[in-house]
């Protein structure tokens, strides 16, 4: 991980250079989007909706092909692009905070400087949920019980142990004063998605769920679950404006899950800049805002150099948190 | 009776001529895709989603088209299962067990016809169940936690001896091999690579379809290569589908029982259509015992998994629509499809968009009827294909398998893997060790393991959680009863002999 | 149990079953041993090694049983058949490797023609049917199903 900081400046500089010499008139056709997962999940959705909009908005010459390349929470696609498609300037690959967590914990065959980071287009936000009949009425009650006995609550989510859903929940415990050596005694149960986790909670098999809002919004609207906290800086827009943030309850924890793209590390500065530009045009369209909202994402733009910096920042953060909590040595 | 009114409205929409035409096209295209080894409903529907946007279809029309493709693919999978012994997708695996022996006896057409009718009945039972009991069943399904699912998988593997008539030891050994191969890849709980030996290609585990195509299609070709002298003769006589409709009447009790078992398995989101067809077949085989000739071309051996599988696919719609949880790979695709049409399945869907739900149910039903009608001419068509001499048919199967598998992940590694499984399948066949348990182990092992580990995480390491609930005790008691009854029964038979 | 009646196409599995039993036994033992190298997951009660161990125990037992009490086999192939099968596997292996670098059309054409020939057709039939099959597969996947196949290098449309 020592190489990161070093490479970061180089990459930031080249990104800057790329932006400086970009010519706005010439949009490069993005012709393929790799979704590093099976059809149906978040990354697949990101690719398919962006591919569809790129074509509809005529930002590309023809159809954008979506390739599913599942494996190792994105490791297979990462390795494939790094080894054989590093200079393909018509290729974008979907990623998110989940991918950053994998990089931070050394689960990918390479560091962040292997790739060029294009942009993020929107973000989902973490929520902490209990069943509507749960004895826990507030985040404080839940966390107090956990501090008293770390094994008191069975938590569930869609990431593996030490993954993003788990870390977000543990950050709250940490903020509430749980010592790091007790973090491993907190019970964590992984399910195949936020929906299954919530369903199991409704069946009384687990006590609390930490996951993204977008996937389980229906359960909140139907009143089947109680939201103890959303992990955003500010309260969310309607219809979720009433939900309390963790920050407002005195726990300074946020946990977003943004959706964005990277491309191969050997793509030229010029092509890189033009791809960022294409994505920015897409982001600014009303169609994207609409698609994002329908799927529980808040449209949010970071592109080019700014995004690259943000990626490195996120990875550094997740890495240090993972170390603190004991997920990695 | 709001529900019936909505259902009637759904049917009225689905029966419009334009929609019927789409259903016909969908069924035909789906059947083609499903027949190609390696390509199944998941590919078929995923491929067609962008097309529906291109044509600018209304949501209802798109749904009908895609659902028809889905059903067509499932049916196409039966065609290659029965006529070539090559299952195109996961639920078709069990159909090979008696379907192919029937085809060898020149009753392939009958098997296809029967499969069509059994599927239709299974799907109808599921539709009725869905209409009447959906809210009730959601309450039942959420009572299944990890421990209960684990018990269900234990039941499945305890009955695995019922899959084939060969040596019991070899069946269990094959199942263990499948379960072990299923652990290859990144462990999704701890992110630890297991048995990958540093190959990134293995990080996602062994692709089920790749293994399936290798075990069945490639090994079939190796068998064929043993003796190429007869390869100028047409491979098989297929016959007509009509007798199948008649023999479906004789299989009525089997179809009824299997539809019920399949439907229950489908309602449980972690179980899926594969478990539905698997349990239907093995339980029916136990039930009939010596009265059946399972494994040698018993029509009931085709009817059971087909009815079970389609009832499960219908039942899986309940958790998918009301909880947003896909019960199987194919319902996952339907879920993606609904999402891409901006319909978010979840607890509010039944209340907020009933017309969508019942429109979908109607579309499924229409798709089924369409297939039943298409069935008869299609059997004739595929009979023609099989009239091709073996030296052309087998290379064609191999090539389609290659292209199909290559298109899954665009990787040569998958192709090598498929060849390796081809050799494995061939060796297993020579050893008289059934390949089906390997496939089932590979397919169900992951869910079995993760539910075990989830249960242990919940209990904090206390193993007693596995048999602490009424449901788990019931399932284990059922499994033990089956095993004991089987032993006692075979003991009685031996004494009498 | 009574002596198993052998069909005409069945042979005793005394040798092959024992070999298979030993191989599977070794696999089970290897899987057991190797599973101890998997680091236990963070905060997980049952780690990634537990399930493989749970499976390898019955697998080892069944494999050992097979070594002690082998069953029946199907007749194994003769030398000529083995050669044909080996040739087919080699051909398909090479095909898998050159599919991407050479492009679908040329690689498949050569492969299919040789494969059909291997299955016992005449050269003339192999050439004709091979070409037909290659082109129709290409049209089917590339255009009808919209799944792109690797193109010939330097040829892009």
Structural overview:
Chain A: Belongs to the UPF0065 (bug) family. Chain A: Residues 1-27 form the signal peptide. Chain A is α/β, with parallel strands linked by helices. Helices cover 43% and strands 20% of the residues of chain A. Chain A contains eleven helices and ten strands. In chain A, strands 1, 2, 3, 4, 5, 6, 7, 8, 9 and 10 form a ten-stranded mixed sheet that branches. Chain B has 497 residues and is mainly α. Chain B has one domain. In chain B, helix 3 (41-55) runs antiparallel to helix 4, helix 3 (41-55) packs parallel to helix 15 (329-340) and helix 7 (146-158) runs parallel beside helix 21. Chain B is globular, with a radius of gyration of 22 Å. Chain C has two domains: 10-74; 79-144, no CATH class. Chain C is built from five helices and two strands, in the order E-H-H-E-H-H-H. A two-stranded antiparallel ribbon of chain C has the order 1-2. Chains B and C meet through helix 3, helix 8, helix 9, helix 18 and helix 19 of B and helix 1, helix 2, strand 2, helix 3 and helix 4 of C.
Distance between the termini of chain B: 58 Å
Measure the end-to-end span of chain A: 13 Å
The general outline of chain B is globular
Question: Helical element count of chain A?
Answer: 11
Number of domains of chain B: 1
The appropriate CATH architecture of the largest domain in chain A is 3-Layer(aba) Sandwich
The protein's oligomeric status is heterotrimer
Strand order of the largest sheet of chain B: 1-2
> For the residues shown, what is the average pLDDT of chain B?
80
Task: Kindly provide the radius of gyration of chain A, computed on alpha-carbon positions and rounded to a whole number of angstroms.
Answer: 20 Å
Mean pLDDT of chain A, to the nearest integer, reads 84
CATH uppermost class of the largest domain in chain A: Alpha Beta
* Uncertain regions spanning at least 5 consecutive residues of chain B: none
CATH topology of the largest domain in chain A: D-Maltodextrin-Binding Protein, domain 2
Greatest interface (CB-CB under 8 A), with counts per chain: B-C, 69 and 74 residues
What is the rounded Rg of chain B?
22 Å
Please state the structural category of chain B: mainly alpha
CATH superfamily of the largest domain in chain A: Bordetella uptake gene, domain 1
Helix content of chain A: 40-55%
């Amino acid at each position: 991980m020592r190489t990161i900081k070093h490479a970061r400046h180089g990459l930031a500089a080249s990104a800057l250079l790329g932006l400086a010499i970009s010519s706005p008139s010439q949009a490069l056709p993005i012709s393929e989007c790799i979704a590093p997962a099976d059809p149906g999940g978040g990354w697949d959705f990101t690719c398919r909706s962006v591919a569809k909009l790129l074509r509809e908005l005529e930002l590309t010459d023809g159809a954008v092909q979506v390739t599913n390349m599942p494996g190792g929470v994105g490791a297979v696609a990462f390795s494939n692009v790094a080894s054989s498609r590093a200079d393909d300037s018509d290729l974008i690959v979907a990623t998110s905070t989940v991918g950053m967590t994998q990089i931070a914990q050394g689960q990918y065959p390479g560091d962040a400087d292997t790739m060029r980071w294009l942009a993020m287009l929107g973000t989902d936000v973490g929520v902490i949920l209990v069943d509507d009949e749960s004895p826990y009425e507030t985040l404080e009650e839940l966390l107090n019980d956990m501090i008293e006995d770390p094994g008191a609550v069975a938590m569930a989510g869609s990431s593996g142990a030490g993954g993003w859903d788990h870390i977000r929940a543990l950050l709250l415990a940490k903020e509430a004063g749980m010592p790091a050596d007790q973090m491993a005694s907190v019970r964590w149960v992984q399910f195949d998605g936020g929906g299954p986790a919530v369903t199991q909670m409704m069946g009384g098999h687990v006590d609390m769920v930490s996951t993204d809002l977008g996937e389980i919004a229906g359960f909140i609207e139907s009143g089947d679950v109680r939201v103890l906290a959303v992990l955003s800086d500010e309260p969310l827009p309607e219809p979720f404006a009433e939900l309390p943030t963790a920050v407002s309850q005195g726990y300074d924890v946020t946990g977003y899950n943004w959706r964005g793209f990277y491309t191969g590390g050997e793509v030229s500065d010029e092509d890189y800049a033009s791809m960022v530009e294409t994505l920015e045009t897409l982001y600014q369209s009303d169609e994207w805002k609409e698609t994002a909202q329908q799927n529980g994402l808040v449209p949010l733009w970071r592109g080019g150099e700014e995004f690259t910096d943000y990626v490195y920042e996120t990875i550094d953060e997740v890495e240090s948190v993972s170390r603190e909590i004991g997920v990695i040595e | 009776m709001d529900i019936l009114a909505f259902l009637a409205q759904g049917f009225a929409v689905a029966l419009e001529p334009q929609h019927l035409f789409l259903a016909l096209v969908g069924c035909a295209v789906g059947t083609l895709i499903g027949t190609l080894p390696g390509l199944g409903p998941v590919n078929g529907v995923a491929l067609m989603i962008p097309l529906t946007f291109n044509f600018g279809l209304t949501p209802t029309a798109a749904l009908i088209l895609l659902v028809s493709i889905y059903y067509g693919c499932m049916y196409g999978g039966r065609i290659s299962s029965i006529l070539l012994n090559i299952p195109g997708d996961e639920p078709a695996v069990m159909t090979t067990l008696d379907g192919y022996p029937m085809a060898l006896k020149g009753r392939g057409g009958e098997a296809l016809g029967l499969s069509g009718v059994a599927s239709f009945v299974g799907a109808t039972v599921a539709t009725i169940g869905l209409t009447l009991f959906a809210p009730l069943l959601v309450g039942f399904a959420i009572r299944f936690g990890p421990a209960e699912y684990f018990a269900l998988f234990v039941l499945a593997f305890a009955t695995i001896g019922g899959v084939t008539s060969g040596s019991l030891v070899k069946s269990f050994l094959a199942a263990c091999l499948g379960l072990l191969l299923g652990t290859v890849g990144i462990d999704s709980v701890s992110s630890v690579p297991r048995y990958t030996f540093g190959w990134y290609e293995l990080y996602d585990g062994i692709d089920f379809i790749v293994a399936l195509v290798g075990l069945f299609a490639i090994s079939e070709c190796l068998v064929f290569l043993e003796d190429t002298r007869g390869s100028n003769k047409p491979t098989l006589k297929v016959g007509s589908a009509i007798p199948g409709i008649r023999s479906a009447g004789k299989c009525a009790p089997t179809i009824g029982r299997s539809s019920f078992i399949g439907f229950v398995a489908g309602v449980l989101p972690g179980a899926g259509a594969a478990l539905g067809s698997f349990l239907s077949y093995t339980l029916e085989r136990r039930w009939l015992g010596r009265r059946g000739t399972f494994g040698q071309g018993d029509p009931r051996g085709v009817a059971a998994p087909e009815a079970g599988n389609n009832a499960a696919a219908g039942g899986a719609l309940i958790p998918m629509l009301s909880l947003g949880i896909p019960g199987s790979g194919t319902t996952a695709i339907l879920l993606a499809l609904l999402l891409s049409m901006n319909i978010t399945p979840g607890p509010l869907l039944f209340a907020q968009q009933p017309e969508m739900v019942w429109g979908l149910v109607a579309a499924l039903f229409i798709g089924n009827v369409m297939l039943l009608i298409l069935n008869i001419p299609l059997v004739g068509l595929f009979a023609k294909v099989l009239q091709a001499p073996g030296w052309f048919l087998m290379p064609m199967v191999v090539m389609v398998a290659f292209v199909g598998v290559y298109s899954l992940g665009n990787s040569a590694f998958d192709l090598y893997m498929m060849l390796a499984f081809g050799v494995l399948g061939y060796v297993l066949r020579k050893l008289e060790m059934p390949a089906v348990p390997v496939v089932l182990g590979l397919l169900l092992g992951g869910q079995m393991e993760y539910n075990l580990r989830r249960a242990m995480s919940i209990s904090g390491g206390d193993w007693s959680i596995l048999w602490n609930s009424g449901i788990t005790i019931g399932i284990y008691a059922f499994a033990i009863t089956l095993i004991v009854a089987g032993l006692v029964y075979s003991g009685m038979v031996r004494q009498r002999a | 149990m009574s002596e198993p009646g052998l069909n005409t196409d069945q042979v005793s599995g005394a040798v092959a079953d024992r070999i298979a039993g030993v191989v599977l036994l070794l696999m089970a033992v290897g899987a057991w041993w190797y599973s101890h190298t998997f680091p236990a997951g963070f905060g997980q009660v049952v780690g990634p090694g537990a399930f493989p161990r749970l499976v390898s125990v019955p697998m080892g037992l069944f494999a050992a049983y097979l070594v002690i009490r082998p069953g029946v086999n199907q007749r194994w192939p003769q030398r000529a058949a083995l050669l044909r099968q080996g040739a087919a596997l080699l051909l398909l292996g090479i095909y898998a490797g050159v599919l991407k670098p050479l492009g679908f059309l040329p690689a498949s054409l050569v492969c299919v023609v040789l494969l059909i020939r291997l299955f016992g057709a005449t050269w003339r039939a192999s050439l004709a049917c091979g070409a037909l099959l290659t082109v129709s597969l290409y049209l089917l996947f590339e255009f009808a199903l919209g799944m792109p196949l690797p193109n010939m290098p330097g040829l892009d449309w």
